[in-house]
Amino acid sequence: QVQLVESGGGLVQAGGSLRLSCAASGRTFSNYAMGWFRQAPGQEREFVARISWSGGITYYAGSVQGRISISRDNAKNTVYVQMNSLKPEDTAVYYCAASRYAGNIYLTTSYEYWGQGTQVTVSS
Q1: How does DSSP classify residue 76?
Q2: Are 84 and 122 in contact (CB under 8 A)?
Q3: What share of the chain is helix, strand, coil (3-state, %, to 5)?
């Protein structure tokens, strides 16, 4: 089992920044690729970003490319996402997820463990 706890969400004005963290416990964190997803009210959960187990490979959704950066610290069992130039359409609950095996990185079904989520609200 891997337990994931997100933090760092909140209310921010458009154009502002937030840094989300996801702390992992349980099995060896460095064995897992980590992803961030988000879900807005009435919408499906959507892929935001992913980082490989080593941190050397990253992927981003087109909607956030250039505005966010995913990183990880395996010594601290933590993955981060720095979000800049936030827009009202970024408002959602943000979830981190762990993936032990290869698969379509954009699908929620490719991730075995999930956190409870942290709310991000961007006001206009």
Answers
A1: T
A2: no
A3: 5, 50, 40
